[in-house]
């Protein structure tokens, strides 16, 4: 554990029982509701399992996005939208790590595809620095965090790179979500 992590751990332990209201997740808004399901999986971890170090962020790993694959998409899919959220952050609403949009070419994103230099992918630029994949990095001492990878099939492309706030997403996708799927992994920083 780094010096910074050791310094932050007492704060994490103090906030251990504080969790967000999952109902406030952007993915729970009516704009994202769909009855059609996409099966989302990864070769890096199974649903509910620990996300390996290499796919984690600050203080844990290398921030390399995991491989993701999905089942057949509905007819009319023009774009895919990936939202990665931490549903256990000690804030009012779940924390959003990454929002990315890309063409539905193929049935997977290869490991490491979610980089700032990949021109096939557009990002919502809501965090400081270059938009890219931000891997799990829970507050030391806070306990186990669940990270949900939400994938949505859309019937049109979305210009998320022009947005600056996550709460702008529902208006952009409203009426365009054809199907959705979720893969959940966990991570703990002692």
Automatic annotation (TrEMBL):
This is Phospholipid-binding protein, PBP family. Belongs to the UPF0098 family. It comes from the Bacteria. InterPro entries: PEBP (IPR008914), PEBP-like_sf (IPR036610), YbhB_YbcL/LppC-like (IPR005247). The lineage of its organism: Bacteria, Bacillati, Actinomycetota, Actinomycetes, Propionibacteriales. It comes from Microlunatus soli.
């Amino acid at each position: 554990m780094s010096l910074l992590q050791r310094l932050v751990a007492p704060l994490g332990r103090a906030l251990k029982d504080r969790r967000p209201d999952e109902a406030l997740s952007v993915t729970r808004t009516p704009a994202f509701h769909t009855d059609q399901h996409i099966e989302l999986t990864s070769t890096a971890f199974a649903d509910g399992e620990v996300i390996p170090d290499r796919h984690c962020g600050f203080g844990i790993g290398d921030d390399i996005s995991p491989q993701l694959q999905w089942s057949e998409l509905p007819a009319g899919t023009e774009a895919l939208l990936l939202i990665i959220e931490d549903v256990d952050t000690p804030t009012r609403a779940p924390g959003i790590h990454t929002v990315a949009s890309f063409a539905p070419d193929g049935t997977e994103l290869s490991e490491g595809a979610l980089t700032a230099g990949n021109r096939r992918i557009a990002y919502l630029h809501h965090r400081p620095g270059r938009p890219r994949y931000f891997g799990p990095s829970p507050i030391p001492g806070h306990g186990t965090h669940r990270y949900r990878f939400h994938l949505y099939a859309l019937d049109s492309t979305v210009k998320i790179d022009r947005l600056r706030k996550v709460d702008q997403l529902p208006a952009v996708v409203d009426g365009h979500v054809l199907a959705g799927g979720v893969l959940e992994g966990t991570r703990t920083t002692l």
